[in-house]
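Input chain follows. Return structure tokens only.
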Amino acid sequence: MMAFATRAHDLHERFFGAFRTVLGGSLLQLLARLTLAGVFWRSLLTKVETAKLFTYTEYINDFPVERARMRVPELPLDLKPATLHQFANDFALPLIPGDIAAWMATLGEFVLPILLVLGLFTRFAAVGLLVMTLVIQFFVFPEAWWGTHALWAVMAIFIAAHGPGRLSLDHVFGNRFAR
């Protein structure tokens, strides 16, 4: 019985040791950064005017519909009227006028995901997105905590606590300036 338990433990350690070697460390940190950045980048694209890249035509019930494989924000950023309306009328943000809150959220969703993807000022970006998540949670969608926002918060906390990993500009610049 003891030999079986020892073999089972050894098998467990080998399997999860290999798993940790492949997915642990910098790859996991990169995946967390890209995932969290993607959430907020997609939110940005709903707030601003966008340009379509790699367009194609899809036919739905014999009607042509133009689609795009990718959308990017048009620069300079231009808020959609619906975004301004939403922040002014639908979101219960205290102390901050709706138009200012809309621009703050939009600029945060533009800059912070880019920093996360690059791994530049990563912990700052993760904490910024954590603060945005908490504002969304408490003032915009207070009923949605366990559905989505807790997952965003956990990713942001993980990134802030563990840093960007070796696959980042923070790592490259940190090593360069440490010498």
